[in-house]
């Protein structure tokens, strides 16, 4: 599988019109870059409370199913990524009240040694059961999406057509 291509001109690409340019990548890669899907899904993405998380996860999962009905793999994959991101961000806040895992951002360090050191400076866990509940809500929908039979078929087809060497 080809890696996610961050060199593309994301401001000017319509991935609905040009799905061949889309790469799945790993995890949530590109979730805040790929249009028009980011613009369609992001306004519904919320996890502050379990009530908001349920409404958000249900809406995004419904969008996921609508994309599948249209055989729009890129849209479905983006919805799956937003569900996954709902889980990971909720878990981050469930573990760290500030939402920050590290004292300093390792990605802002310029040398590999400084990045490694920054990753060792974890902030203490401050469990938040409300955010943990939000995470569980998103995880349930994310698992439904990533194991959906039609999604898996479209994923395989996309990889064969657009990501094979």
UniProtKB/TrEMBL annotation:
Q: Per the record, where are the segments of Basic residues compositional bias?
A: 93-103
Give the start-end ranges of region Disordered. 93-115
Q: Where is the composition biased (Polar residues)?
A: 104-114
* Record-linked InterPro entries: DUF4385
A Pfam family this protein belongs to? DUF4385
Organism superkingdom: Bacteria
Q: From the Swiss-Prot or TrEMBL record, give the protein name.
A: DUF4385 domain-containing protein
UniProt lineage: Bacteria, Bacillati, Cyanobacteriota, Cyanophyceae, Oscillatoriophycideae
């Amino acid at each position: 599988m080809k890696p996610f291509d961050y060199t593309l001109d994301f401001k000017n690409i319509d991935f609905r019109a040009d799905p061949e340019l889309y790469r799945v990548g790993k995890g949530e890669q590109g979730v805040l870059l790929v249009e028009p899907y980011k613009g369609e899904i992001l306004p519904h993405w919320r996890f502050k409370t379990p009530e908001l998380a349920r409404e958000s996860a249900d809406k995004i999962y419904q969008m996921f199913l609508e994309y599948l009905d249209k055989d729009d793999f890129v849209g479905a994959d983006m919805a799956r990524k937003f569900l996954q991101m709902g889980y990971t961000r909720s878990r981050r806040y469930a573990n760290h009240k500030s939402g920050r895992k590290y004292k300093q951002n390792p990605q802002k360090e310029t040398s590999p040694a400084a990045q490694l050191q920054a990753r060792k400076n974890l902030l203490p866990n401050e469990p938040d059961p409300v955010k943990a509940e939000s995470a569980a809500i998103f995880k349930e929908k994310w698992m439904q999406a990533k194991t959906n039979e039609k999604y898996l078929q479209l994923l395989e087809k996309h990889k064969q057509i657009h990501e094979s060497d």
